[in-house]
Design brief:
Elements (H helix, E strand, L loop, with lengths): L2 H5 L9 H14 L6 E6 L9 H10 L5 H18 L7 H10 L7 E4 L2 H9 L16 E6 L4 E2 L26 E3 L6 H5 L2 E5 L15
Parallel strand pairs: 4-5
Antiparallel strand pairs: 1-3, 2-6, 5-6
Length: about 210
């Protein structure tokens, strides 16, 4: 099953600004006031909900990376950041927030609290490495219920080491991703009203519901 086939049962199609606005309003109205929605726009509807680090390892290995391989790569990345960028005073999560906003590979998925910002990312013109415009493609706008599993920089999440290393986070690879709204380390964070979704590589347990990041 490809990505488009996977999302077909839940998708609605918009062809212009009016229909896009109406569908967004429908989603907001369906959600109760107690639900906290965040949004993600991707420029190609065939893109999966995979983080940049997951995609990088997938391309390198030729097979989906395991959680252990993700952690191994993150350990090397954070060591390089602390040694080369002098980020030794920051927690692991704070370092990865900086790496994410400068285009480095992390397991974070960018989301925003502003649906119009996400829509802009979905439909903005894209260019290849030579600066030539890429062909138009159907885009996709995701809405996530982020009411539960909020991440705060507490004793675990705000620690020096990877919080999810050595299974410190309960059900890390079986529960839905957590949402972290970082402080304004970078002007883009506030400008985009951004946050991050993060979770472990999904692990399906017999008899339990399958969860996907």
């Amino acid at each position: 099953m490809n990505t488009n086939d996977f999302f077909i049962p839940w998708e609605a199609v918009a062809n212009d600004w009016i229909s896009s606005r109406d569908i967004i309003e429908q989603i907001i109205n369906i959600s109760s006031s107690s639900r906290n929605l965040v949004w993600r726009g991707v420029s190609n509807a065939s893109y999966s909900l995979h983080s940049s680090l997951y995609r990088k390892l997938l391309n390198k290995l030729g097979v989906p990376p395991t959680e252990a391989q993700m952690v191994s790569a993150e350990t090397r990345i954070i060591k390089a950041a602390r040694n080369s960028w002098r980020f030794d005073d920051l927690s692991a999560l704070e370092i990865f927030a900086q790496i994410q906003h400068y285009g480095g590979p992390t397991r974070f998925l960018d989301v925003t609290y502003n649906q119009l910002i996400a829509l802009w990312f979905a439909v903005e013109e894209k260019f290849d490495e030579h600066g030539s415009p890429l062909p138009d493609a159907d885009a996709r706008l995701f809405a996530f219920d982020a009411s539960r599993n909020q991440i705060k920089l507490d004793a675990i999440w705000g620690g020096y080491d990877l919080p999810w290393k050595d299974a410190q986070i309960e059900d890390w690879s079986t529960k839905l991703p957590g949402l972290w709204r970082p402080p304004e380390y970078n002007p883009r964070i506030s400008a985009q009203n951004s946050a991050f979704l993060l979770g472990g590589v999904p692990k399906v347990i017999k008899g339990a519901n399958a969860r996907y990041t």
